[in-house]
Amino acid sequence: MKTSFINDAELTFAHELLDFIEESPSSFHAVETVKKLLAPQGFQELSLNGKWSLTPGGKYFITRNNSALIAFSLGLGEPEKHGFRLIAAHTDSPAFRIKTLPEISVEGHYLKLNIETYGGPILNTWLDRPLSVAGRIIQRGESPFSPKTRLFHSDRPLLVIPNLAIHMNRKVNEGLELNKQKDMLPLLAQVTKDLHKENVLIHYLAESLHCLPEDIIDFDLFLYEAEKGCLVGLQQEFISSARLDDLAMIHAGIWAIAKVNQSLSTKVLACFDHEECGSTSKQGAASPLLSHVLERILLAQKKDREAYFQALEHSFLISADMAHALHPNAGEKHDPSNRPILNGGPVIKTSANQSYTTDAESASIFSALCHLADVPVQKFVNRSDERGGSTIGPISSTHLDIRSVDIGNPILAMHSVRELGGVKDHLAAAKVFSAFYESV
Ligand SMILES: [Zn+2]
């Protein structure tokens, strides 16, 4: 059933998002998917360990650790006068990471995996679902300092974390307490004669990657929900999917930067890793990665540090990370007067104590961009007795002296294995990002 509430362009763009998320089961895959989308648009990869030669109007990107990416379209103007237009989002989502030596035998019958939580997932949403494994494995290279990285993504469900039957936990519906080390370990296999005695997972990885088990030195592997997202609601108005936070903002950002027209300012899309655990890695928003890339863009144009600082003064950052929509069953959890809804448009996030970078001036800039893009805009403030989450904006601000606003599309069930967003909001955010990059 299709109604005039959701138009064809919105439906198509929401389906493109679902495809993008399906192809991005880990932050490593998200970067790979972004590269695949940028390449046909003329973006060239730059090496971080070589000198850059840039052409005005040229499109480039760099990656860090295979899990963060910064893309930019070089402006035609003087950088110290026209600055940067930046959008920042994150490639990672809460999940479970497979520990080293992960196999645990259960009474000689089952094999389960030892895992640790990554970020803050809602634990119970991961129970009883077909799960799979994605990330990267590291193989021996020519020298100790040049190991080979290969992405791995199982194309079928491999694991499940089973609930305990209600008969063995009669109080389950009075509140479920789950221990991360005891209750969340996924079942991988039935132990049989044909199963390798040791290193079952490594043998499986080696077979899948057509290499020898001994060539796999280490891995960064995560669990993910095996089932693809879908549209739900009577009018197909909602998006039910894993990792909307924050792949939806990355997807909207790519759409905007891929179609950007050449103009005076340099447009930048920063896709950071490790937001969900505090951003403090070399590929996170708390690293000098972005400030170094921006400075190198100026150095490559034979500009000095003075010009770099002037460029920052002429710059603006949109920190794009998802926001909370009004919950249909828990209205009391929200601020009494600022109550964003699904499909009501992108949300400006404000906090008196600066857990968001937004101030009245940067909020007014974002509102004006929404107006320009003909998109509605909403506002979010935490209930005064609730502590909100953190995001990339304030962390970037401690490293980059740039005016900025924190925004995001409204979703429900943030950090559930399956979050719920609005179909209209997704195209709306992309249109605002485009207006941001294009406006003078
Ligand atoms: Zn987020």
UniProtKB/TrEMBL annotation:
**Pfam families from the UniProt entry:** Peptidase_M18 (PF02127)
Annotated EC: 3.4.11.-
Question: Do the record's keywords include DNA-binding?
Answer: no
Give start-end of the signal peptide: none
InterPro entries according to UniProt: Peptidase_M18, Peptidase_M18_dom2
Q: Which CDD domains match?
A: M18_DAP
Keywords recorded for this protein, A-Z? Aminopeptidase, Hydrolase, Metal-binding, Metalloprotease, Protease, Zinc
The prosthetic group or cofactor this protein requires is: Zn(2+)
Carries keyword rRNA-binding?
no
Q: Which family does it belong to?
A: Belongs to the peptidase M18 family.
The molecule here is called M18 family aminopeptidase
